[in-house]
Amino acid sequence: MKAAIILVGTELLNGAMVDTNSIYIAEQLNKYGIEIEFKLTVRDIKDEIYKTIDYCKKNVDLIIMSGGLGPTIDDITKEVIASYCGKKLIVEEEELQILKEKFVNVGIPFKNINVKEVEKPEGAISFRNDVGMAPAIYINGIAAFPGVPRELYNMFPKFINWYAKEYDLLQDEIYIKDIITYGIAESLIDEAVRDLFTENGIYYEFLVKDYGILIRMQTTQSNKNKVEKITKKIYNKIGEFIFGEDDDRLETKAVELLRRSQMNFSVAESCTGGMLASTLIGVPGVSDIFKEGIVSYSNEAKIKRLGVKKDTLDIYGAVSEQTAREMVLGLKTDVAISTTGIAGPDGGTKDKPVGLVYIGIRIKDKIYVEKRVFKGDRGRVRKKAVSQALFSLIKILNEDV
Amino acid sequence: MKAAIILVGTELLNGAMVDTNSIYIAEQLNKYGIEIEFKLTVRDIKDEIYKTIDYCKKNVDLIIMSGGLGPTIDDITKEVIASYCGKKLIVEEEELQILKEKFVNVGIPFKNINVKEVEKPEGAISFRNDVGMAPAIYINGIAAFPGVPRELYNMFPKFINWYAKEYDLLQDEIYIKDIITYGIAESLIDEAVRDLFTENGIYYEFLVKDYGILIRMQTTQSNKNKVEKITKKIYNKIGEFIFGEDDDRLETKAVELLRRSQMNFSVAESCTGGMLASTLIGVPGVSDIFKEGIVSYSNEAKIKRLGVKKDTLDIYGAVSEQTAREMVLGLKTDVAISTTGIAGPDGGTKDKPVGLVYIGIRIKDKIYVEKRVFKGDRGRVRKKAVSQALFSLIKILNEDV
Question: Which residue ranges does the record assign to the MoaB/Mog domain (chains A, B) (predicted)?
């Protein structure tokens, strides 16, 4: 079965927005063995959308559209679908009531213009939007979703479940396994694992993400055992760089290991400025073991909140192994993590360049401090420092506890 | 003049790569007033590329292709263009010599397969590639570039200069102005501003971002004055919801106002768990006025680090107006911000549901506490709390200081 993705929105063509919706859609459709033949991005112009639908209809079985379901004058996707299908736009009383209730719930006055959000071509099926206003719709091989990613994520699973049942698609046609590495270059992973993929029908690729590089293996369910064997071999070759699989992330893995070893923790951040705490607090249920975070950006805060010695700051500087060490000593939980560095763009010197970061980790009375120099702009240096701190914590917890 | 962009490459459809080339191409073409009608992403399959070129040819004047110019078997872009134009593929001796020299220069042996990189449809013009191997080509309204971004960036200016001369295109640069709102629904903005856009040639749209909703106005430089007039009228209508323009963000605006009023600041976070500090520390140069952040996730930390009274926590709870108030009192800087709330997914009750957040702001000895109930998952509630805290701070600083 073949599909096309149509992204509607002038802003997607003039550089204002990077499209992530189509990546999500492709992944979801791939699970059911539906191939994406092509992706089209069009402006909010009736004729152009119409032509595009017509072109896709002649080439694929299923069209997924994203964008243009809102209430404003440039939201015309449903109108064009109706016209293409020779249907009129209708409003179902029940859907209108649900919409009005949503407006009451969020405390925004409902205006006539908003009725448009529940308009749909006569005969179209709707999928309930739990996180926004306009429902997704489906009619005659065309599904239309809002352009707002979280609304798409909310409704796409409902749609694809329904569609798979309707067309007897089996979900487990495709089997995907991700192995997640950190701290190793793509070319080195490639060199290490390339020879393992000699079997026909097992496809692999590398996906570079913020939290590491994924080795994604894709095949059919019948090859699952073979993938497991390859997985073992990959661990044998580059296991030291692997921190998880599939839905694992650095922070979920770190919290899982901390919880398993029944240790509470806290963090003291300088250059990462709350990003490490924020990332860890993103893990649901962390509150039972996370005690506190100190964003000790000024020297004053390092001294007062963490008991870093004034002498240490004077002699070695705020960005130093000694300071990172005293920062973790200042926190009284079982485990403590500290970061201190120069995120840039200013503040670098020859000895202490922009990108220099010290990461301190204390597990009870054992202290580890590592020095890194990260490349990139302010945001990049801070993100890399957070990822490195989490990866180092995972490694230490795996080995030493 | 209208153009289409065709991106060639199976990897662009399965989520392995995010496309940035088309954003660059769109910006360059916009400078000459060339509109992008649509963008198509296709797999490395001859028939599909052919069909796509055919579809574009029927709709636009200029096709820009990216990808598929390399030496390997899946690089078929030039072959398809030749076949579409009814030309044979040729190799010019001079271009072959240049290519061979490049191989000598980088010390890679030249193989027969590499000849393909200088093949082109008979009659096509080439543009020299200073940073890679395959030149870009142009024939009959179709230009083809490599998919590697730095090679595209190297040759696109050469192409567009030549093309603009050939077709007498003047650079009538596009003028874009963004007005950034917060805390007002898209439909209400639309209602307020719709009547202001009566002029021809001034196009507007709404872009929903994490940090607010943008009103984007787009026109040519010659209409700049008209946009300024409209901008003033927009401020008159919904000024209370506007916090900035163009590159402004909530955090940059907040830091700018704090710096202007010469006040230092610190934050105390519970539910946002470091995200507020991290967002503010993302602003370069903030270190002179940001003193510290306390992620007081546990009651213990609230008491010990911020001096919140145990009684307050016992009587009113950690998520309460009183606690938010005592949190900002516990920080000793000129300005202090606090958040305390229930981010979910667990921990909600009937009286204090998931999404309930108290935001405290202290400007010297004036304290403001606001109560909000945000919808969405854990990540969403935390992000909204951060944005709301920043927006409220901006409003207070604008009004009261």
Answer: 4-167
Q: What is the pLDDT of residues B113-158, one digit of tens each?
A: 889 999 999 999 999 999 889 999 999 999 999 988 889 999 999 9
Residue ranges in chain A whose pLDDT is less than 70: 14-18, 171-173, 400-401
Write out pLDDT tens, residues A55-97: 999 999 999 999 999 998 889 999 999 999 999 999 999 999 9
- Look at residue A70 and give its three-state secondary structure: coil
Q: Does domain B174-245 have CATH number 3.30.70.2860?
A: yes
* Residue contact A26–B43, C-beta within 8 A: no
Q: Does the ipTM surpass 0.85?
A: no
Contact yes or no for A282 and B379 at CB 8 A: yes
- Answer yes or no: CATH 3.40.980.10 is held by domain A2-166: yes
A315 CB neighbour count, 10 Å cutoff: 10
Of B16, B281, B285, the CB nearest to A297: B281
Question: C-alpha angle A397/A337/A215, rounded to 5°?
Answer: 55
Start and end residues for every CATH 3.40.980.10 domain found in chain A: 2-166
Superfamily of the domain at A250-400: CinA-like (3.90.950.20)
Distances (CA, A) of A293 to A230, A331, B59, B291, B386: 41, 9, 58, 14, 17
Q: Tell me what the mean pLDDT of segment B181-185 comes to.
A: 93
The CATH architecture that domain A172-245 belongs to is 2-Layer Sandwich (3.30)
